[in-house]
Amino acid sequence: MFNPRETPFARWLLFFLFGILSAIHLNIKIPGINFILFFLLLASFLAYLQKGWYRYWWILALPSHLFFSVFGYILTIENNDLNKENHFQHHTQNECFFIGEVNGMPLKKKWVKLEFIMNSTGTDYEDLKACTGKVLAFIERDSLSETLAHGDQLVFQNPIFKLEPPKNPHSFDYQSFLNYKNIHFQTFIKSGHWRILKKNKSKTISSTALILKMEFLSILRKYLKSDNEFGVGSALILGHKDEISEDIQTAYAGTGATHVLAVSGLHVGIVYLIFQIFLLNRITWFHPIWKVAKVVIPLLGIWSFALLTGMPPSVKRAATMFSIFILGTALTRTKNAYNILAASAFCILFIDPYLIMNVGFQLSYCAVFSILYFQPRIAKQWLIKNKIRNYLWQLSAMSIAAQIGTAPLTLFYFHQFPIYFLLSGLIVIPAAFLILNLGLTLFVLESINTEWGFIIGKPLNKLIEIVNQSIFYIQNLPGSIISGIWISGIIAILIYLFISQLAIAIETKKFKWLIGSLCFLTFISLNHSFSKYQSTQNKKIVVYHINKGSAIDFFDGSELISLTNSEVDQKNLNYAVQNNQWSEGYSNLRTFHFEDSTNHILDRWMYKSDFIQFYDKKFAFIDHPKDTLSNSKIYTNYLIIRNNPKIKIASLKNHYNFGLLIFDASNSRWNIEKWIDESLFLNIPFYNIREKGAFVIDLNQS
User: Fold this and answer.
1) C-alpha span between 688 and 167 (Å, rounded)
2) Could you tell me where the beta strands, DSSP code E, fall in 268-357?
3) Contacts for 453 with CB less than 8 Å, ≥ 6 apart
């Protein structure tokens, strides 16, 4: 069990997190909050001066705990670039010139995608004002944009747009994802509308690390010929995930092995072991200089590796935690793993409080905490004398422990659960150790002599190939994954509370904790039953936003009828509709296409010649000029224009009596703008899906 007095950082972290989350959701500057912070700091100091304070520490520590909540709130508000007076959004009503620097490695695909940090802006190149802020820039790919690198100074003349919210219900919120990285705007720059002012020639640590990373990637490309092997190798060794194919991502996600592709605590731990076991522990020298070196060398090694990977949240967490562990060992202080974990989170969130909303950060800490607590308790349930079988059991215990801690988040964010995570863990965890060691050795050999790399390069390529083949094999096993699981954030929290209460009950063997866990399980069960009941009463129509495509879902209780155009890209279709379909809790799915010439008649749904009736709602579709030549006037609730037909809005009133005109996203922006002008002139009500997002009709409320 935990002793709160032995884990002060854990207690402070909880209050610190409360302040951060409050600031993220409120985002309001509170007058006089700095005075409140000072008062709480003073009260904390006076409380700890009291004699015998440790007897009543839970009362006297309250001011210090509240101090961290207020401090977290202030820190988060100040960290939001939009709250800064010199943010470029406050100066760009009429400005068109922007100067800034490329931050990080540009991603070069159809467009060159990069993070751009603003330095100055103005209406004229000769009259610029200093500013701050980040922009997600997409630059048209050409010979010049191919040369862009971290630190290059650019000037461009182009409109900047605020990031848009998701256009479909329950779809991935890319706007929030970028907002939590302090990116709130984007721009698309064509060739000729920008130029390089100065190439980066700085020798900063970050720029040097990126140059080294590019060199190491070229070494990997030399020996990892296949795209799949290079994608996995570059991700696992250097944290470079841009080259991973969609098939590889799907396979690793479906088998519960995605964490290996994201450089994490496992990899940082391997680097620490390389320095500690294979180097430092083999040298016996008692000079004071060597005592300092035994601390400095592993710290430099860990943070050098972290810089090379681009320092994703999981690596920051692991590097910080190992650093605190190494320093604590050097100072011969008592080491509490939970306190070290909390301290590392505190340090990372102090630098960037918005990382609390990063999925990788959340999964990383939940996994490590769960492994620390559950792995030894699971492992001791089966004592095995055989070393090989015991090693396999220890790996299995670690995988089970990690799944206990991450399963609620996995279900909440990804709506799936990998069945064979134990099997994949037995393969990828030992393989990750070997691959990382071989990769680092390859870089050393290539640096010494470019002809020595083949000694390691070929075995490395073969090992990654075997691992990939194993993952694909596991993915193809029957029932390898349960998908379509939909839980809310509240249910995810209730699951964590259930797990914690049950763990405490087992640890303390006290009945009251078991009662608590059963209460949370009851809440979860009741919510599931209520959700199932709601789905049986569901009557809803959703016209989705799909670029250059059309899709409409008709929800009727547990039945789902989906109407799409047959040529729509399946990836775009799933991205737009899948999450919403899962959230509605359907059991049976029937799919039809706009191109079907056959009439379809179901219980409460009918499709016939571009006309649909669902309960009392009628839809007509215009996707070709000939559709406007009907001799008799047809009544319909909704008239949907799709696929860029060459029509005049005025002609529609001669052939249709409709309540609302809908333009879906299969139409071009130019056509929609033209039709909107006509509709406004004729006073015709309309809905633009391309601009406003999906059109939802809830028949239970209409």
Assistant:
1) 11
2) none
3) 219, 222, 223, 442, 445, 446
Its pTM stands at 0.87
Give the containing element (helix H, strand E) for 208. helix 205-223
205-223 and 454-475 helices, crossing angle to 10°: 80
Sequence-distant (≥ 6) Cβ neighbours of residue 216 within 8 angstroms: 237, 238, 308, 443
Distance from C-alpha of 271 to C-alpha of 269, rounded to nearest angstrom: 5
SS3 of 573, please? Answer: helix
Query: Please, are residues 468 and 228 in contact by the beta-carbon 8 Å criterion?
Result: yes
Tokens of 426: 């037995």
Task: Note the pLDDT tens digit of each residue in 186-212.
Answer: 999 999 889 999 887 666 777 777 778
Q: What are phi and psi of 204, to 5 degrees?
A: -70, 165
256 Cβ contact list (under 8 Å, min separation 6): 399, 403, 418, 420, 421, 424, 425
pLDDT of 63-101, one tens digit each?
888 999 999 999 999 999 998 888 888 776 555 789 999
DSSP bridge partners of 185: 135, 162
d(CA 30, CA 583): 37
CA-to-CA dists, residue 518 to 373, 502, 526, 531, 601, angstroms? 21, 8, 12, 20, 47
Q: DSSP code of 164?
A: P
What three-state secondary structure class fits 368? Answer: helix
Residue 192 phi, psi dihedral angles, 5° rounding: 90, -10
Could you read off the pLDDT of 99-144 as tens digits, one per residue? Answer: 999 988 888 888 999 999 999 988 877 778 889 999 999 999 998 9
Contact criterion met (CB below 8 Å) for 555 and 588: no
Contact in structure between 129 and 118 (CB atoms under 8 Å): no
| Bridge pairing between strands 588-593 and 559-564 | parallel
One-letter amino acid of 441: T
The tokens for 184 are: 């709130």
Confidence class of residue 627 from pLDDT cuts 50, 70 and 90? very low
Tokens of 335: 């080491």
Distance, in Å, from the CA atom of 419 to the CA atom of 255, rounded to the nearest integer, reads: 7
Confidence of residue 626 (pLDDT cuts 50, 70, 90): low
Contacts of 553 (CB under 8 A, 6+ apart): 540, 541, 542, 544, 560, 561, 562, 563, 577, 580, 581
Cβ contacts of 279 within 8 Å, gap of 6 or more: 297
Worst-scoring range by mean pLDDT, 255-259, 324-328, 337-341, 611-615?
324-328
Burial class (CB in 10 A: 0-12, 13-18, 19+), 311: middle
SS3 284: coil
Q: Are 579 and 609 in contact (CB under 8 A)?
A: no
Residue type, 268: V
Q: Convert the pLDDT of each residue in 543-566 to its tens digit.
A: 999 998 999 999 998 899 999 988
Whose structure tokens read 């909440």? 412
How far is residue 339 from each of residues 50, 355, 440, measured CA to CA in Å?
A: 25, 19, 31
Tokens of 69: 């909540």
Phi, psi of 398 (to 5 degrees): -65, -40
pLDDT digits (tens, 9 = 90+) for 459-506: 999 999 999 999 999 999 988 888 889 999 999 999 999 999 999 999
* Residue 628: pLDDT over 50: no
The H-or-E segment that residue 605 falls in is: strand 605-608
Strand, helix or coil for residue 162: strand
